[in-house]
Structure formats: structure tokens, C-alpha cells
Design brief:
The protein is about 35% helix and about 15% strand. The protein is an alpha/beta fold.
Length: about 200
């Protein structure tokens, strides 16, 4: 079977894989359950297996309680009090079990906000590793993945999205965001299957 090439050419050793928030708190039957995660997990695993040493997993870490946050984030965690760290089982913060076995050589980055670039060392890490392209997979297409993609675009990185390795709790929003990436960010964001990305990643 012939695999289509990527629009802007092959990916090389300067390409890293950012796998966003594939955690138990979204995989299990919590208030933040993302039903698609189970379906995309085998695709994500196959992508990680390609280059686990070039994979960075993110984990979304809520505050202990809403009083630790300011502005609209305080209101947000008042609304989702049952998902703060003081209320949940700490195991819910962990990566889903099939992905934990890749760490190391994969690394884990904890983040307090949607974007993994905000108040973390991610941008510095990518610079230190001479990264010029970023594959972004994980959850959710219309929340934390969106925040990661936009910040990566602003840094001038080539962003490649494996559409079958992204998930959301909203079909409508997922489809709308895939259309947005394809139609409005076509010079900075590429969409392809995970299989095509793996086949074009040296």
C-alpha cells in the first residue's frame, strides 16, 4: 500500500511528538471523561512506539482547590471542584497505563493550564533539542490540543496533527477544529493519518 507524503515533506530527527493529557482522569468515568480516548489509544501507542525517545507526554494538574487560582480559573475550578487535587484519587493524574511503560525514554511535563507552553520549560526544551517540527496528539482536540497548537504555531514550529490520534468529548467541536486547522492554518498546520506521519518520520 502506498502512503501519501506529507505536504511539506518528510519529518526528521528534529521532529518531536507532544502527546497531550492522555491521563486516567479523562479515560475513566469522571466528570471529565473523554469517551474517544479508548478508541484513539492504540493509534497513539503506535505513534509513540515510532520514537519514544522523542516523545513528551503532558499531564494536566489541577490545583488543590480553587483558591489557588485567580480570575476565571478560580471560577472554573469552583465549577469543577470535584476535579481538584484535594478531591480526586491521585492515580487519576497519571498517564493511562499503556503509555507509562514508555517513560523513560519518553519524558513527562506537568502543566497547570490548557497550554503546555505556559509556565513550563517546554519552549526551552524544544529549543535545546533543536526541534523544528512538532507532532501533536492526545486530548482534547478543542481544548488543550488547541492551546498547544496555537502556541507552537506562534513559535514558528511546523505542526503536524495525526487526526486519528486526537480525541474530544464533543464530535461537533472536534470536526470544527479539524476544519479550522485545515482551512485557516494550512501554511502552519498539517493534518494526516498517524500511519502517514509514522511512515514519513525518519
Amino acid at each position: 500500500m502506498t502512503i501519501d507524503p506529507l505536504r511539506f515533506g518528510r519529518l526528521n530527527e528534529r521532529t518531536l511528538h507532544l502527546c497531550v493529557d492522555m491521563q486516567n482522569m479523562f479515560a475513566e468515568k469522571t466528570r471529565w471523561h473523554t469517551p474517544w480516548m479508548k478508541r484513539v489509544l492504540p493509534v497513539v501507542i503506535a505513534l509513540v512506539e515510532r520514537h519514544p525517545d522523542r516523545t513528551i507526554f503532558t499531564r494536566f494538574i489541577p490545583p488543590g482547590d480553587s483558591s489557588e487560582m485567580s480570575g476565571s480559573w478560580r471560577r472554573y475550578f469552583e465549577r469543577w471542584k470535584e476535579m481538584t487535587r484535594n478531591e480526586i484519587d491521585p492515580k487519576l493524574l497519571e498517564l493511562v497505563d499503556p503509555l507509562r511503560r514508555f517513560v523513560p525514554p519518553a519524558s513527562v511535563l506537568d502543566k497547570p493550564f490548557y497550554s503546555p507552553f505556559h509556565r513550563t520549560r517546554l519552549a526551552q526544551t524544544l529549543h535545546e533539542r533543536n526541534c523544528d517540527a512538532l507532532i501533536v496528539s492526545g486530548a482534547e482536540t478543542d481544548m488543550c490540543v488547541l492551546a498547544a497548537v496555537l502556541d507552537a504555531v506562534d513559535l514558528g514550529l511546523r505542526v503536524v496533527l495525526p487526526v486519528d490520534a486526537l480525541c474530544s468529548s464533543s464530535d461537533e467541536s472536534h470536526e470544527a477544529l479539524i476544519a479550522l486547522y485545515r482551512n485557516r492554518f494550512s501554511q502552519q498546520v498539517e493534518t494526516a493519518s498517524a500511519e502517514a506521519i509514522s511512515a514519513n518520520w525518519a
